[in-house]
Structure formats: C-alpha cells, structure tokens
Amino acid sequence: MPSASGSEKLNVGLIGYGMAGRTFHAPLIQACTELDLTAVVSRNAERVLRDLPGVEVLRRLEDLLERDAIDLVVIATPNATHFDTAQAAIEAGKHVVVDKPFTLTLAEARQLEAQASAARRLLSVFHNRRWDSDFLTLKAMLEAETLGRVVSLESRFDRFWPSVTDQWRDQSQPGAGIWYDLGPHLLDQARALFGMPREILLDLVTMRDGAEVDDHFFVLLKYDRLRVSLSAGSLVAEPTPRFRVHGTRGSYVTYGLDPQEAWLRQGRAPTPYWGLDPSPGGLRLDEGKNTLVDRAVTAIPGDYCAFYAGIAAALQKGTPSPVTPSEAIEVMLLLEKGLDSDYHGRWVKFQESGKTPLESCCDSLT
C-alpha cells in the first residue's frame, strides 16, 4: 500500500510526547525504514523539536486528523484517553496503533475492533514486551520442549520506587495504578505462551506512603496442569527473578529486565542485535538417573523494532498484524476479570463447559 501522499514510506503522526511517546514510539518509528514520523501532537513544542528537528508539531488532535497525508496514527497519551482518541482517528480514516493498555474497559476495546473492521483500517496495540530478549528466549525453550511439560511459571516486574509522583499514573483517576501499567505486559506474555486460563485470582494492594492507587499486585492464572503467577511491586529493593519456570525435565531462572527500555531512556538509537540480554539466566536439566546438569543459555536478541516493522508490512504487504485486536481484547478481558476477582475476593472463571473461550468471555462479569 503506498502512502496517502504517494511516497513509498508511510507517514506517521504521533499523539503525545510524554514518557511513552518520547522513549518508545518516536525512536522506534524513526528506526523503521518503511515509516516516516511526520508530525507530533504535543503542547511542548520545544521538547519535541529539540529531539526531533524537522518534525512538525501540532497542538490539537484535530489538526493531525485533518491531514490526508497521514497514514498511521500512534496514540501515546494517558490511558483514559485511548478510546476517544482511537475512535476519532478511525473515523478520520487513519490506521491506528494504541499504546497499552488498549482501552479502560473490555466494551470499549470491542467497540474499537468493530469500528476498525467496518472501516477496513488496521488497529493494533503496542504490546512490546513480546520482543523482550528473555521472553523470546523462554518462548523458544517452550517450543523446543527443553523443560519438558511446564508445570509452573513465575513472572515478575519489580522495582524500588518509594516516592509517589505527581504524574497521572500515580493519581486517583481511571486507568492509573500498576495493574493497568505493568499488568498488560505480564498478562500478554502469559497469554502468548499458554493461551487463556480457566480462572484468575488477583490481589491488588496500595503499599507506599501517600499512594492513591494500587502499586503492587499478585495474580494467579489457573490452567489444567499449569499454574502461572504474575506480580509487580514498587517497594522491592532486592533483585527477584524475572522468570522462574519449572517443568518435568528441569528449570529455567533469569534475573533482570530486558535492556531495551533502559537504552531507549538513555537516548540510544536501536541497532541490529541491540536487544541482546547480557544475563540470559540459568538452565538446569535432568540428564537421567536423578542427575541435574547446568546448561548454558543462548539468548535470543530482543527487538522492539519488530513491532513497527510488522505494522509497516501489514499495511504495505498485507501480512498479519504483529498484535491483532482480538489478542489485545483478550488482555483487556484478563484485566477486567482480574478486577472482578480482587473486588469479590475470589477466583473468577473464564470458560464454562461447552463454551469456547471467546463465548464464555462474553458473559457479563459477576
């Protein structure tokens, strides 16, 4: 598909230039040779132009959506604005990428999917953690059945941020808190590895002094013969395992986060193989006769650029989108069912006998 302006590259308009827009989306869009970051909607023109000289800065969303030459709109605004902004962009005939979480509610996500489908517009969600080095390495292990049948997986995003900020993520408003911030990452990874669970149990906590929103969560996902635990905390100073996975042939444990986010925050531009994890973790396998042997782990490089390369290929060549609306909707379902579980203090089921996962997911929350 050629650009609306007739050029070979697709013209991209970025909405929002806060942490997500500045740290992730702008550099990754610029690293994609098939995309051209043409305009940014921001109230801080000075900061945008300091980082992106030559890019046009607009103050209003409407000014961007009126530009026929803009092919793709990327939404990197606060969570509560995702739905309205994406809806307006689709109505304006634009293809759309939304930063995670997709929306605030499952109903909003489904409405956007239906709207984009009717308009024949691409709609995707930036679930970039599918391209973490540790996740790709673990995924390859599971596909090769290196650990045998996996029986448990623990996945954590921990940090030590004791101070409550004045940013919107720490304020009492829709879409704030750690569940909607880090929950989508961990839930999407678990869903990508194992599919949708049978049940979910969530415990949300507000731990920091002066905190207005949740800053810690622990969630269990129940599968037939597998248990997945996901957690994130803001008062964890001691390093904890990023992944701890146990199977019938052995275990895999890794520490530390994929380096791509840290490098992007430092202003380093993406380069080939830049996402290689320097600490790929430890693998201990059963070699028979109750003999456990430590094996070296070959890390697969992380590659956040693959997301936007996939978006460009989907628009230009008709290949599958790197993150489909239906996948993002499943993450929204997990988020919502999790909230239902925390509110009622019990396990919440996804699937009932005789129903497909999507059919049972459509049931109203109880």
Verbal overview:
Helix 5 (106-119) runs antiparallel to helix 11 (325-344) and helix 8 packs across helix 11 (325-344). The chain is globular, with a radius of gyration of 21 Å. 33% of the residues lie in helices and 23% in strands. The longest helix has 20 residues, at 325-344. The N and C termini lie far apart (45 Å). The protein is built from twelve helices and 15 strands. It has a nine-stranded mixed beta sheet with strand order 14-13-12-11-7-10-9-8-15. It has a six-stranded parallel beta sheet with strand order 3-2-1-4-5-6, sandwiched between helices. Mean pLDDT is 92; it is low at 352-366. It has 366 residues and is an alpha/beta fold.
- N-to-C series of helices and strands: EHEHEHEHEHEHEHHEEEEEHEEHHEH
Number of alpha- plus pi-helical segments:
12
Structural class: alpha/beta
Task: List the uncertain runs.
Answer: 352-366
Helix content: 25-40%
Ends: how far apart?
Answer: 45 Å
Q: What is the number of beta strands? A: 15
Largest sheet: 9 strands, mixed
Dominant shape: globular
Strand order of the largest sheet: 14-13-12-11-7-10-9-8-15
> What's the Cα radius of gyration?
21 Å
Mean pLDDT: 92
Binned strand content: 15-25%
What is the topological layout?
Elements lengths: L9 E6 L3 H13 L3 E7 L3 H7 L4 E3 L2 H5 L6 E4 L6 H10 L3 E5 L6 H14 L3 E4 L6 H11 L6 E9 L19 H4 L1 H12 L4 E7 L10 E7 L4 E7 L7 E7 L2 E6 L4 H6 L16 E5 L5 E4 L9 H13 L7 H20 L3 E2 L7 H5 L5
Helix pairs in contact: 4-5, 5-11, 8-11
